[in-house]
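Minutes, project check-in
Item: structure for the 379-residue chain
Input as provided by the requester:
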Amino acid sequence: MSGFVFSEKPIRIERGEGAYLYDDSGTEYLDFGASYAVTPVGHCHPEVVEAAKDQLEELMFVQASYPNSARDACYEALAEVAPSGLENVWLCNSGTEANEAALKFARSATSKKKIVATRRGFHGRTMGALAATWKQKYKKPFEPLAGAFETVPYGDSEALADAVDEETAAVIVEPIQGEGGINPAPEGYLEVAREQCNETGAALVFDEIQTGLGRTGDFWACEGEGVTPDILTSAKGLASGLPLGATLCKDWIAEDAGPHGSTFSGNPAVCAAANATLDVLAEEDIPAHAAEMGAYLQERLETADLPIRDIRGRGLMTGIEVKRGSNRLLKELALNHRILALPAGRSVLRLLPPLVIEENHVNSMIGALSETMGTTMES
């Protein structure tokens, strides 16, 4: 028997350490995708592993209506690193659940229904989050989805201002689009979203599931833009790959969030892994390192004379728009150079490595790209 949702790759991964993964024969792969940004402090960081193991030996699970020290510590740690005013924390199991909660909280707190989302945005695969997601291939088989959603072009401040009105419960936007092609918000765009939400009483939701936890060089991408939302969602690397999502809210949202719940909210062992992950991010100043390595990666890409159309992103969230299909390039990188990366559509190579990579890792990627892209473009 086998799974039926995922199309499995011809590489069987059995172990991970730092920036590397190892298959069942012991072959080493440099990980420049981090399974969609879920290992910010590297694979199997010893402090994270030890914290999770210690908690498993004490208590594997208790439902969130019973206070627990690991969960309480997670609430406190997230409130401490959150942008100012986002001190209320809801824990769940994934990014899509965090966004689903955000949309429900916004509708409850505002007593409005309309949600404004963006083209090329990706917010998850549950029925509510999927309604806010742009790509039709994800949506069409499951329609009808949740109603009262309107999409506008990403980065178009005028279109956004026109769409957000007195009937709007929330605006949900990624500070940098991930699945949509690594598209940073244009200068001033997030400020317009903030202003329109202030004027209409709508909640501004920043989906930081891929951009957060130091990936862009700031702990949260919105901090680099100087804009604070009413709700911020996080997941991916929050517990170094164990299933955890978080919805961080301002008081006015939390005070009237509505009857939401989840059996597995704040699993103690997963919270322990998250607490250790957040400690490592702070102790090793991982966001600053991501900014430094991101700048080095950008410089190497710009000077490598590669046959590419564009380089986009911030920190260690990088998109390389190529002239031919990205999937073929990714296959060549994996099979011939033992480097794993990701697509963002048909023409964008997405680099989301563990934030602990060093210059030698970047140099390996650039060398592999130079060889592979030359061969791929000529064939």
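Outcome recorded: The longest helix spans residues 359-378.
No further action items on this chain.
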